[in-house]
């Protein structure tokens, strides 16, 4: 069982440890192709960190998120640089073929109906691509945090990579390419990035600003963090991390999906 997140409240502190990660942005820009003259929809864009980076790259960006708090935060940072609206990715309020391409960064793990989400993305885009980045069942199983929080392996929101590929193809995408993200920075503040920087687990400032730990029941979260900090102090944590390195090498810290009609 997981704890629901109040995204309106979370928006007030989200950007304290969150930004656009170069480890994600580089392959994202490569997958999207040339920016000039192209419109892009950022679906579930949170507080607009990737929207800002893509606008800086030259895309005409529209940002949307179902959380009023997240949209307000985006407006306060980016007003005049991107358009932003309140919209649920499973029921987008845009006309058919309104955008050249679309992205959803770390969104699908929070979506109830993934097939509805990708159908809507397909409907509102023209030539594409649609680029998704999220943690798969494989990349979660490669995360040493699972040693301390084994319940993560049972969470239904982490689906096999093949499930996303099947959903995209069923929606009419004829080409779906995948590659794996490997973090070398912690700019986006996600647990998948922070696992490469174990010192961030010593205080709550970073790790409690992640959906992975925020969703855990309080007792499970506190027990896991206490064990991590104890093993960090004793030196055992480095041994635990080393046992997962081959899996990270194989499955990365998440998958980037590039879908084209």
Describe this structure in words.
The protein has 261 residues and is an alpha/beta fold. Helices cover 42% and strands 14% of the residues. The chain has one domain (7-260): Vaccinia Virus protein VP39 (Rossmann fold, 3-Layer(aba) Sandwich). A seven-stranded mixed sheet has the order 3-2-1-4-5-7-6, sandwiched between helices. Helix 3 links the parallel strand 1 (39-43) and strand 2. Helix 5 crosses helix 8 (161-170). It is globular and about 55 Å long. The N and C termini lie far apart (37 Å).
Question: Mind sketching the topology for me?
Answer:
Blueprint: H1 7-10, H2 22-32, E1 39-43, H3 49-57, E2 60-65, H4 68-78, E3 83-86, E4 101-105, H5 114-124, E5 130-134, H6 137-141, H7 145-148, H8 161-170, E6 175-180, H9 191-194, H10 204-207, H11 211-214, H12 218-234, H13 236-251, E7 255-260
Parallel strand pairs: 1-2, 1-4, 2-3, 4-5
Antiparallel strand pairs: 5-7, 6-7
Helix pairs in contact: 5-8
């Amino acid at each position: 069982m997981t704890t629901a997140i109040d995204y309106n409240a979370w928006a007030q502190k989200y950007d304290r440890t969150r930004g656009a990660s170069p480890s994600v942005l580089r392959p994202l820009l490569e997958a999207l192709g040339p920016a000039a003259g192209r419109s892009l929809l950022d679906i579930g864009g949170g507080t607009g960190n990737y929207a800002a980076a893509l606008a800086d790259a030259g895309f005409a960006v529209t940002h949307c998120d179902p959380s009023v708090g997240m949209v307000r935060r985006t407006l306060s940072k980016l007003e005049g640089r991107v358009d932003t609206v309140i919209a649920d990715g499973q029921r987008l309020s845009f006309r058919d073929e309104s955008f050249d391409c679309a992205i959803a960064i770390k969104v699908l793990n929070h979506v109830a109906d993934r097939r509805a989400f990708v159908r809507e993305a397909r409907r509102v885009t023209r030539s594409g691509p649609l680029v998704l980045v999220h943690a798969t069942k494989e990349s979660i199983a490669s995360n040493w945090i699972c040693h301390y929080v084994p319940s993560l392996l049972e969470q239904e929101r982490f689906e096999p990579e093949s499930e996303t590929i099947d959903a995209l193809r069923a929606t009419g995408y004829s080409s779906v390419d995948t590659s794996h993200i490997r973090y070398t920075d912690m700019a986006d503040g996600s647990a998948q990035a922070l696992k490469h920087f174990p010192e961030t687990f010593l205080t709550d400032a970073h790790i409690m600003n992640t959906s992975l730990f925020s969703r855990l029941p309080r007792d499970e979260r506190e027990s896991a963090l206490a064990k991590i900090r104890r093993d960090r102090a004793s030196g055992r944590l480095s041994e635990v991390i080393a046992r997962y390195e081959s899996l990270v090498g194989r499955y990365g810290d998440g998958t980037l999906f590039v879908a084209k009609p």
